[in-house]
Amino acid sequence: MNFYGTEISSPLLMGTAQYPSPAVLVDAIKGSRTEIITVSLRRETASGQGDGFWNIVKSLGCHILPNTAGCHSAQEAITTAQMARDIFGTNWIKLEVIGHADSLQPDVFGLIEAAGVLAADGFQVFPYTTDDLIVGEKLVAAGCEILMPWGAPIGSGQGLRCPDALRAMRGHFPDIPLIIDAGIGRPSHAMQAMEWG
Fold it and tell me: Based on C-alpha coordinates, what's the Rg of the chain?
C-alpha cells in the first residue's frame, strides 16, 4: 500500500489511547506489527503524559498519524492539525471534525472545508468520513489521496453496518486507499474489511 508516497506493508493502524499502562501499549503495538499509530494531540496533552508519552511513541519506530480528535469545527481542526505538525514533525494528519456529540458522526461540511485548507497548506490528509460517495468525491477534489470511512460509530464495535455502501466506495474509488475507521469490534470485522479490499 502506498500512503502519500510512503510504502506500508501492514493494513492495520493502531491507536495509542486508553491502554491500562505504557507497557501494555508497547506490547500491543509491537504484537500487532502495525506500521502506523494514531496519536491525539489533545488527549495526550490533557493527560499530562507529555515527554514520557512522546518518548514511548518514538521508541516504537512506527509512522505517527496525529489526529484532530474532539474537534467540532473546521477551524478548530485546522488549528489542532497545525499544532500537531509542529509537535510531531509530520505532514500526515488524521482529520476529524465531529458533527454529532453522541454518535461522533463526522460533520462532512466542516470536514471538506478543513481538508481543502490543510491540503493547500501541505498536509497529507487522512479524513474520517462517512461512506457517502459524494462526500468522498469532494474530499478527493480537496486534495485527499486517502479516505477513512466509518464502519459504524466510533467506539460502538458494531462492525461494518453498511456493507453495500462500503463496497460501492471501493468500486467508485478503485485507486484510492480506503481505511475503515471506527466500528471495528472483532477480528472478524477487520478481516471482512480486508477481504473487500
Answer: 16
**How many angstroms separate the Cα of 31 from the Cα of each of 24, 34, 40?**
10, 8, 21
Give the residue numbers marked as catalytic: 94
Bridge-based pairing state of the strands 92-95 and 124-129: parallel
Q: Which of 69, 133, 56, 119 is nearest to 95 (CA)?
A: 69
SS3 (DSSP) at 32: helix
In this model, does residue 121 exceed pLDDT 80?
A: yes
pTM above 0.90, yes or no: no
Place of cell 512522546: 54
Full DSSP string of 102-153: TT--B-HHHHHHHHHHHHHTT-EEEEEE-S-HHHHHHHHHTT-S-BEE-SSS
**12 CA to centre of own chain:** 11
